[in-house]
Design goal:
Three copies of one chain form a homotrimer. Chain A is mainly alpha-helical. Chain A has a two-stranded antiparallel sheet with strand order 1-2. The two termini of chain A are about 20 Å apart. Chains B and C meet through α11 and α12 of B and α2 and α3 of C.
Chain lengths: ~290, ~290, ~290
């Protein structure tokens, strides 16, 4: 259920959190502006992550058609491929941190710098501080701790929902992608929505897209590295519905966040995609691997 | 042939109508401007529709690999999934109407408001009035009537072209996607092109993309609801070439309409994609369902 | 290996050349601007090319499921489909030349016209002249000669790397997509990078994306036409990893070049996608055709 939770967190932050933020913010403000360069940059990173997560599945689909003696698919190759991709992801993540915390930090503070000072109270205060004032080292440390905490909490959640899941007849993949993701990201939800309702869109988008970026570029590769430490190598191969969900979510997020302005309809559009994906995962039987696996 | 006509109308308006408008408008005006926010909003709605139409096919491809006893694919599930998606589409459509006719109607009238008054004659007058002056109720009523009319006309067309089709050796899917769509959307074609040649790009794009939006978000779900009333439930599962055509059309429309300006080359590019898709459907044998169906 | 070289040149110019240009240029200049309309136009042309290259594979996948007696897949049909698409591509290429050399040439010279004069020396001088001063006829002539030269050079390269390839245990597709593409495009690499480091982004992007456009819209169809002259018709059907690579490259290039500004992180993002695709092709066994081919 780990991979399903990763997928769910990525699409949940992009669609549900950003959708609710744009919708509720848009009900108060006719048009909301944000820094286009920063938003596009984050979405590009997510697109890179989505590409990276598609590749192991493309590899499986193609290589599974070839006998092993001629270089066909083996679990070992899938793991090596995934390990290589994990290094690219974590490398890009470090570059992203350098960019947003050092060389181009002004983009991410933007015009809302002045207001940021007097908004240090309230639900958004914690997240805002993270973006504005923390050192790189502290940010990374907090990220690591938060990651472990989220992983533990997710496991805890999974345990406590297992009974309910079976009684309700829900599949593991639905619970992983939808239920755990909603509960596990409750903090991001409230912070991002409160920020949007205060018209602090850079902060709101930073939390929503930033959370997806962290999960795809930091949590996913760290899980791969950790899996080697525990002697049970994990690959980055996701099921076809999962990669479809991630790719389509990035596509609509790119379309919506690419012009530096938002309104309530864009929120509805993001939420509609989330509901459509929720319907898919609700009806989907338990399939954890690509179709051609035997 | 109903689904093929839906596909054909969606891609026909986006590629052929918008392509001809940009091309012929661009021959007269070196660069044409339009309201970027309105255009992006419509394209986003189309992207949402394309995502919604991809999902039933993804469901089929994955769920068909699983035995029915373990939650595998059944026609019943496909219909329920499609019904859920139809509700999301019609809900988003209502939100889109609220947005374009009520909360943000100024975006869709734009700077061309003044000229709109003295342009109430000519081919574009009818469509312009629809966007500017009609009440929500009247608009919806006209839409309903127009939809039924188009459906009847399409059926009539299909009947009258059937003989010609067999003599020419064309497949049903080619006639549905290309021929019926061209003839069935002749009114949109002329209105949108005349508007573009008068440099009224907001109106031209409103007609072209707006027609695609109406078909995907209004006609398609209404057909699903109606199919239940007639006791022959219809699902929203399209063939792989159809969803490829819709997704690729939305991708190029998003790329072209995303910056608020057009030129003749963009018209050529849209038309080129339309011709390429036409070639595909010309060579394609009669396959109405996804590849794995037995 | 011809098709693998085409794929490699398209993605190499878009990802490696543009990535290095943005990265190295971005290290010197915090933010670099370029003409958004010109860049979007080139990317749109690439998207059209990517769509055109996807279609023969979609055709194969779907038509291979149908018996030949009912209109199923035959090599003849695939060639006819490819020939039709080749005509669309070359027609669009001619339109693109008209646009960039005649009707809208000011977009491609842009604000950098003045500086262009005093920059006629150095590594970028050659390429710059091509864009600014050459007549259409001369440009086309040079293109033709350059194309034949590149083709010959690629063949020569392929011959000389064949021994090394087998000793290193690399697959043909990896060598074609990655190694030959890097060496074969060395000239574009240095010109584009030097231009970016002089903050001449319009020129740099013109070389990088322009080279991809030339290969996809000019070299690929010319190879198809030439193959008929030699009596060994070639189709435009690429393997699934190849079309995935091209589509995903265009997607990230569209996202990055769509806003008319670049920074070093965008370079890193393009390079990261290139490395991820390199890892895929490194692990991929020799598969030249789509999965369902028997």
């Amino acid at each position: 259920m780990v991979k399903a939770s990763l997928t769910g967190s990525i699409i949940g932050n992009m669609l549900l959190v950003m959708g609710l933020s744009f919708f509720l913010g848009g009900l108060k403000f006719s048009e909301q502006k944000f820094n286009r360069t920063a938003a596009r940059s984050s979405v590009t990173t997510l697109l890179l992550a989505a590409i990276a997560l598609v590749i192991p599945t493309v590899f499986h689909l193609v290589a599974a058609e070839v006998p092993v003696s001629q270089g066909g698919w083996t679990p070992q190759k899938e793991q090596n491929l995934s390990l290589g991709i994990a290094f690219v992801l974590i490398g890009t993540y470090i570059a992203t941190l350098l960019f947003s915390l050092k060389t181009h930090k002004q983009l991410f503070i933007g015009g809302s710098h002045a207001e940021a000072a007097d908004a240090a109270d309230g639900a958004s205060g914690h997240a805002e501080t993270a973006h504005v004032g923390w050192s790189k080292g502290k940010s990374i440390g907090v990220l690591l701790v938060a990651t472990i905490f989220v992983a533990l909490m997710s496991e805890f959640l999974v345990g406590s929902v297992e009974d309910a899941r079976q009684k309700l007849g829900l599949t593991e993949v639905f619970v992983g992608v939808i239920v755990v993701a909603i509960i596990g990201n409750a903090a991001e939800h409230s912070s991002a929505i409160f920020a949007a309702m205060k018209n602090k869109m850079d902060l709101s988008i930073g939390i929503a897209i930033g959370s997806s970026v962290q999960i795809a570029l930091f949590v996913a590769p760290v899980l791969v590295f950790a899996s080697y430490a525990f002697g049970k190598p994990m690959d980055l191969e996701f099921s076809i519905p999962e990669i479809a969900a991630v790719m389509l979510s990035v596509a609509i997020a790119a379309q919506i966040a690419g012009d530096g302005e938002s309104n309530w309809l864009e929120g509805v559009q993001l939420l509609a995609v989330y509901v459509v994906l929720g319907i898919l995962f609700f009806f989907l039987p338990e399939v954890h691997h690509v179709a051609t696996t035997k």
